[in-house]
Amino acid sequence: MTVSGWKQVFADANARCRAQGVDVGATPHMLRHPYAVITLELLWRGHLQALGEMNEQQRLTYQRVFGDPLNWVRIRLGHRSATTTALYLHTLQELEMRTRLELVPEGAWEPVGFSEEGCPPTTHPRPGRDREGPDNRP
User: Where is this region: Disordered (predicted)?
Assistant: First the structure.
């Protein structure tokens, strides 16, 4: 498919959405980020699973044959530097953290001994305020 044909596919889809009252628009460039994040995640997961089942020599051979997932995505996105592609790793880490937090039951992270306001309760005297004496030392 030509570049102009690809752009036309999106233009037609956007027109159909508008005709149906759906206020959404997309371009081919908008797909780069989701493509990179999803592809990296799947490649990393596959690599980690495969490498975990191998000995050191097998891992070395596997890495030589299949390469680095980040470099694989870099080539497909047309980036000159892996540093540019590495920006997508931040999104992966953020998604992983959000997913993990969603799986934590409500109230599971409440530390023992903290008040509703998030401050620890005062269980010991504060120097200079709660003790009496000439120098207020504990």
Answer: 111-138
Distance separating the N- and C-terminal Cα atoms of the chain: 78
Helix axes of 32-52 and 56-66: crossing angle, nearest 10 degrees: 150
Residue 126 — very low, low, confident or very high, per pLDDT cuts 50/70/90? very low
Q: How many Å apart are CA 96 and CA 102, to the nearest integer?
A: 10
Taking only the tens place, the pLDDT of each residue in 10-26 is: 999 999 999 999 988 88
